[in-house]
């Protein structure tokens, strides 16, 4: 149980005394600085826990003018997080890198248009040193909101508005969606497929639009009936697959813009008695191993390293928050990073 | 796309002009106050989004001295959230009630002992007006940390240390775990079962310990071999079921302390050729409908209204933060609420 020596709020001194180390060592451990031996750091942490010690934030802020917290803003219904391993993966990478640098991740959800001004107020209120955002829809006010704040920000995925906003500008980390889609469709062509459809994500999201562009780069003359819009959910993938089969019974391949949608599409193909890959070859996108290795047959898909993209977002944010070179007008230049994708061939195509 | 009339950071006036309403109407919508017609509120929100307007937090804080944000602290690995619908349900209730009152939920995870001081620093730094916490392990430093801060706090589940901490004290919302477990075991006894085992949660958590106490209230002389400790995961439930069957092949019933563990236990019973409920009757705990109605056979279980408990936590927090009557020493008294449970009979017992 927790012990308090004299009943007062425990101090840094109390922690140092109990752990048998100097106050500056306690400070270093608490601020997540390296160069403390693991055994010593453990003793300090045990003392912190036993005493219920809480560092004095007001005192720290005067020195650093920082909250040591970073907002992670997710524009999805909270329950999407619970069914889509994509987010789990992304957040794991982000969290790893933030915590490694001693920053507290603070998760905010936008589920509803009403949430924007409230989230904006929090972001602009000095409670966080920066923000990592996922804002992918064409009409999303987040890029403009963040551009008006003096807050370092990095977007996961390319925001729809480009980087033309006034203000601080922003960075983004995106996968090579278009290139990955091209590789997927070229693979289907190389297998001799002639009626290749695609199931897209919601086309007001840049990742979905970019993947469709990649499909069209290869199949310049693909008729509109071969394109069905999904919503990045399993059920959406199933519904779009059913629609494609109704419209084009002679379909012999489909490029599906996410693994979760692809697993829904595989279910429908099985129900309709189509063999995969013999009758219809299927390629997904993401390479979420928990899905892609579990489908029947295992899914050929385009790999993007989602966890690494999360880590990269956090790293970019710290660069922007610290000594990034300023651009001509004295503001840091927006910077965007596009990470490579590659085809992982399993059994479905 | 976002429009900015003169290139400056958009103001409350800009929003009012664009929406064709008064500044005070804009204020009311942004602060989540009721009494604005839905059509008018929609116009304001559209103007906010189109302009990328961000309310001026510094100005608001001077008036209210509040951040209008509430921390939700979850002491679980983030990926637990993605496999256990319990948390989804709890967070949904919390979020609903916070948002209804215009407060921004801010989600913090504690996955590692290193996280405590960092989370404590954030909680104590004036960034949130209160905290909702899930802290259930005996050696958890959170109750003591929060007790040292001038921060209203409500715990989900009864903290292990009781309410004896100095400082502000805290409230908690807990289900009647012991009473629910008693009802479950009495039900098994009433079915004529004679060798009734139990699979518990981790016994350093109060909810797990309370449910085991309820089991023992009814079966005073149950031998230790009938008790197997699980960890509230599906695999933990399966492993504990296998251990029980190895030790007590004549087992004819089992009370499992969570639905997720019960679904793992049912899988093992099926693999071992035991019919449910004919050979072994099974009762779970939680009534997570997504699980309990999907198991084969559907699960008889103890219902706790998890979403409502989330709402209740948020309501209690607002009461404590506002005009709760003070106790004798000038501090608000800790208050704890225990919500009722009830048995839902399906096919497994």
UniProtKB/TrEMBL annotation, chains A, B:
The UniProt record lists the keyword Transcription: yes
Keyword ATP-binding: no
Keywords assigned by UniProt, alphabetized: DNA-binding, Transcription, Transcription regulation
Transmembrane segments: none
Highest taxon above the source species: Bacteria
Residue span, HTH cro/C1-type domain: 11-33
A GO molecular-function descriptor: DNA-binding transcription factor activity
Domain HTH lacI-type: 10-64
The name this protein goes by in its record: LacI family transcriptional regulator
Species of the source: Streptomyces capillispiralis
